[in-house]
Amino acid sequence: MERSLLRRPPSGRRGVQSVETGLRVLSALAASDGPTTLTALGARSGLPPSQAHRYLQSLIASGMAVQDASARYDIGPGVIRLGLAALARTNTLGAAETALLRFVDATGWTALLAVWGNAAPVCVRWFPGRPALMTSFGVGSVLPLEGAAGDVFRAFLPAGDLVAAGVPALPAAEVARIRAAGTVEQKSAVAPGLRAVAAPVFDLQSRATLVAVALTTDGAPPRAAAPGIGPQLLEACRTATREAGGTWP
Questions:
Q1: What domains can you pick out in the chain, each with its CATH number?
Q2: What is the pLDDT of residues 127-141, one digit of tens each?
Q3: Is the peptide bond before 131 cis (omega within 30 degrees of 0)?
Q4: What confidence score (pLDDT) does residue 136 get?
C-alpha cells in the first residue's frame, strides 16, 4: 500500500489520506449491486485500476473485501459485522430529536415527534418554540387522525396496516401528492388558529417510524410565520433519517 500521507480535510481536522482512499474503495464496493470488476471499482472510486487493486488487497487481508472465482470483488464479512454493530446502535428517535431541536432553534416554531399508535398518531416528544405555544397537545396526546401527522402516516404506512387497524385510507391522488411533496401543511380544525406542517422520518427499511410536526398560530410573529417552513422541516427529517441510518424512499 502507498505511504500514508497526512493532509487537512475541509473540516480542518487532520486525516490519513491513504485511509480515506481505502474507505472510498470500500464505499464503492458497498454501492455496487453485487460482485464487481476491478475496472468498475476503479471508475466508481475515481482511482486507476492499479491503485484500486492495491487497496483491495489490503481490504481482503483485513476481511473487509473478498474476491470470487471470477476475479470479481465484493464486501467481506468484516463489513457485515460493522454494519450489524452500527444497526444495533441506531437511534432514530435520538437523531430526530437532535434535528428537531436545531429546527426549533432556527425557526422559532414549536415541534413534536409522533409515533403510530393503535389507530392514530401519538405525541412522544415536545419541543417548545418561541413564543411558547398554548395548546392542549403534549407528550402522550393522541393526535387527530385527519390532522397533518395523521395524513403523513396514512400516506406512507403500508395499506395493510391501515386496514388492519380499521383506519380509513386517503384517496390515491392525495397519497401520491403527499409522497411527492414529502410534507403536509394545514390549519387545524380541532384547534382554530393553529397551523401545522408535518413530514416523516424513515428507518433502514424505508418505514415511516416517526412523523415530525411543526406548529405555530395565525398570530405568531412574522419571522415564525414566514414561508419555507415546509422545506426546512423536510430537510430536518431527511437529516434525521440519514443520521439514524435510515433510507429515504
A1: 6-87 (1.10.10.10), 92-243 (3.30.450.40)
A2: 998 877 777 778 888
A3: yes
A4: 74
Q: Which three cell numbers stand for residue 197?
A: 406542517
**What is the grid cell recorded at 40?**
468498475
Q: Which residue has the cell 424513515?
A: 202
**Amino acid letter at 20?**
E
Pairing between strand 184-187 and 65-67? unpaired
Contact 41, 25 (CB under 8 A): yes
Predicted TM-score (pTM) of the model is 0.65
In angstroms and rounded to an integer, the radius of gyration of the C-alpha atoms of the chain is 23
Give the three cell numbers for residue 249.
424512499
Q: How confident is the model at residue 177 (pLDDT cuts 50, 70, 90)?
A: very high
Q: Following DSSP, what letter does each residue of the chain receive, concatenated? A: -PPP-EE--TTS--EEHHHHHHHHHHHHHHHSSSSB-HHHHHHHHT--HHHHHHHHHHHHHTTSEEE-TTS-EEE-HHHHHHHHHHHHT--HHHHHHHHHHHHHHHH--EEEEEEE-SSSEEEEEEE--SSPP--S--TTPBPPTTSHHHHHHHHHS-HHHHHHTTPPPPPHHHHHHHHHH--EEEE-SSSTTEEEEEEEEE-TTS-EEEEEEEEEETTS-TTTT-S-HHHHHHHHHHHHHHHTT----
